[in-house]
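Quick one before lunch.
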Amino acid sequence: MRIHLPVRPAILARHTYETPAEGRQGKIRLDFNENTSGCSAAVRIALARLSAVKISTYPEYEMASHSLARYFGVCPEELLVANGGDDALRAVFDTFADPRREVVIFEPTFPMYRYYAEITGARIRALRYGPNMEFPAAEALASLRRKPRLLFVTNPNNPTGTLVPKRILARLLRKATHTAVVVDEAYAEFSTESIVPWIRRYPHLFIVRTFSKAAGLAGLRLGAVLANRESLAFVRRAMPPFPVNCAALIAGVAAVNDRKTLARYVRGTVRRRTWFARQLHLAGVRVFPSAGNFLLADFGNLGPLFFRKLAEHGILIREYKILGPGFARITVGTQSELEKLLYLLRRTP
Ligand code: PMP
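Model of the 4'-deoxy-4'-aminopyridoxal-5'-phosphate complex:
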């Protein structure tokens, strides 16, 4: 029997590299920008209370949406929950992207924008961050002349840590008359700069948030799109009726209600980020300013040997060979995790 599998050309042409994500348990996980302190105890208590009836019932979203919307300072109609930030981004793509129509991204960045653009068969216009990892504002503004369907700004950006000033975002939004502007604020808690309130001013602004980072729920998959209610209604049409499971919802509500734990983790991470950057700098490593829960660093010639040593000791980091052989992004983990890494750095000749 000969079968012709009718795979879409865009899928056949896809080539984005997918990072290995298996076998990480028991290691020091400084490679995925997770909250390595773990989620709040309140989350585990809430999950333990999940009843058999609740688990066997399709999820309802209204109550949870109220709590989550309150956390972001928006109305429930301005929030759409999704199965992680990844799924939130997919929904935006499904709403606006079309084959051969342009999507603007800024690289190096989170690979999912390229990934979804490739799946759609959209035309990718990739602009690059500058040599000091600065946002290419002039090129970004110029790219809008071609009326791309979508423009993605990651703020702060992963892996560079770059924070785009609000005045640049405002200029982009004013110029983007035919473009949906997506601002991915996955790490906004660590930058303390969010433009969520602007969704009332700009109907073409879509903000993507996640509970995987500050809230520490990466394993449960919970994310959101925030936008003006009329604009968000279009994105809702690209969503299945039950995009998020009841455990993720309950965990999300418990995490945002335990504001103290969330704030403590964010405060601690920001403090350790400054300390860790200073330690790397003192060790002769080039560190880029970061507004996220991670640092991009260039270890130069020492890089490959040091990275091998880290791997041998079960410390995972993310190498960025495309930026140079010594480049890596390191999550700001706990104090003891970072000290272990620094100990090995000092022992690398
Ligand atoms: N956006 C950015 C910039 C990210 O770095 C990530 C995760 N690494 C996400 C979105 C998606 O996170 P998640 O799917 O876990 O919510």
